[in-house]
Design goal:
Blueprint: E1 5-13, H1 17-27, E2 31-33, H2 47-70, H3 90-132, E3 141-148, H4 153-165, E4 170-175, E5 181-188, H5 192-201, H6 218-272, E6 275-276, E7 280-288, H7 292-300, E8 306-312, H8 329-332, H9 352-367, H10 370-388, E9 393-395, E10 400-402, H11 404-428, H12 435-438, E11 442-443, H13 446-453, H14 459-467, E12 475-476, H15 487-515, H16 519-541, H17 557-576, H18 581-594, H19 597-620, H20 626-666
Amino acid sequence: MISRMHQVIVAGRQRDSREVMAALQGAGVLHIVPLDAEGFETGPLGGAAADERRNTERLLARTESTLGELGAVRGTGRGAVAPLPPEGEWAARVEEVAQPASALGAREGELQADLDTQGAYGEVVRVLARLAGGVDQSRRLALLTFTVGAPEELRGVEDALRADLGDRFALASDRVNERVVAGALAVPRADREKARAALSRARVGELRLPGRFDAMPVGAVQAEFERIARENPGALDQIRAEKRRLADAHGPALFAIRDALADRVAIDEARSQSARGKYGFVLQGYVPDEGLGAFRAAMDAMKGRALYEVQPVDEHHAEAVPVKLRNNSYVRNFEFLLNISDPPRYGTFDPSWVVAVFFPLFFGFVVADIGFGLLFLIASLWMLARSRRGESLPVGLLGTTLDPGTLYQVGYVLRTMSLWSILWGVLTGEFFGNVLEKLHVFYYNPDLIRNLWGVPFSPATLERLTEEKHLSGLIPILFPRTLPEFSITVLLICLGLGIVFLFWAWGLRAQLSLKHRHMHHFWEAAGILGGMVGLVSLAFVSQAGRDFGALGNLGDWRVLLMIAGFVVFLLGVVLARAPLMLIEILSQGGFIISFTRLFAVGVAAAILANLATDVGWGLGGTLPVIGPILGVLVGFVVHAFLFALTILGHIMQPLRLMWVEYLNPTGYFQESGPRYQPFARHLK
């Protein structure tokens, strides 16, 4: 749900503005919006205040860069949390650490760069030094080095050199590894440029080493590389140990200074959003219902320095009102799935609970497999455990890293999805396809299915199930989605969901539009609702197009309902002045049909899982000992391959139904508001 907001105005003396802002910052509940007022100064601070802010920002940048160079982590080191030093000591305390940290960082960078160069070029230089045989020290000869991918490329090099230099060159080569061949070319110094031109014509580039190594003879480079490999690791360990010592000794105090400086910069930013006069200031913002007590307490502490006024927000003019979602702990963990857009406009509808309830349910409906559900459950429990330890999770496929907070939410959502998958798997009797059917744990009871769903089994199906011995077991299957006779039932369930969700979405659109007196959108929504009533009635009366003659039976109440629906639709087209609704109503019919994705994707995956199990089971019966082992391995590989192919659809199809088919008609993406960002103290 969306928290109720209050608009507040704060006014006070200019000389007390910093103290008032600090009190508001301590309360941490006020969302500030810029205020323009005639006769008042607005925008960035000027004069001495601007100079003070620049100095604060410079010291803040210096502090943050020092903490970054040291690799300091909050909550570690001596005392873990240090008291804030006196303000007059801040600059000195920062510089005390910044200078040695900068020197250590620079030296670490040099050593690491040399070590990286040695690691990248060490093998090539070793071979080249041996091939050069001291020629690189000659005053009469020039040595050019290069690499190629295969020995055959050397023929083109020799041909180009011979064409330009005749016999005035010597070429030696040797393989460095499977992919690289190193070459050393000796020519008279006067022919160096001709040799380079010949190499270029042969499409071979001269080997250039980075940095200081480029100007050194290859033999000297080899000697330097040996020294780097021998000494640099130890030197790096010493530097990093010294950085850790500095971080442990000074990190907590630097974090305290950083936070105080960041708070001060934030106060100056808040002051710049106020309207300022020579003697006073005025600040405007919004406070959520649950933060009103903290706001009043902060302002009461400023009694005599500032005045404030609180008034309810008008929902009918809420474009600039910030939005704060207030949901229970379960729904909060699903809110990130809607962060692809700004939050809904204040005074409208928060669909977080709809996503929290129906997305995992739809996912479980699609997967509906105990085995795959258990795999998801194991993955979710691992994510939750990792997040509780404060660890992040790099996701290379997406090129991002999930911080512990986000990782917890993902793990929580995945755990809910897995539990629904297991529950639906119990109803469908699926465990990695039909494994538990073959083991007679789950079985088909034709009488039970007929009594529950009114679906009789065909003689062919009964014969097949009898032959495969699937009519006896421990637990009856209640939702046999893979049976041909049951497909129409599953399809109708999905279509029913589509009808409910589309009517729900457009009903919300009509209700919110009427509430905010947006009559154009109201008549549009009312017209679409009427049109969908007409379409659904038409489909039922004509039996999905098989009997159009039934549409002329005016004695059938469904025909009258269809006519009434289309009349309301045409009325909506006229009153909304939206002729494109004639096309839009067809797309809404398509949105209803889109819910059959739950049937198509789920049943297709179940059939593939059954096939994978059948392949493994069939191999298991071929040989006494090797057969079962081979069957399990093949079944596992096929299941893993099919699961990897289908998992994206399992997740994206239910999400699409939420994002597109349901949320689009509600106007969620068209009517958004700014996110609530309270002015609060800085803490990283």
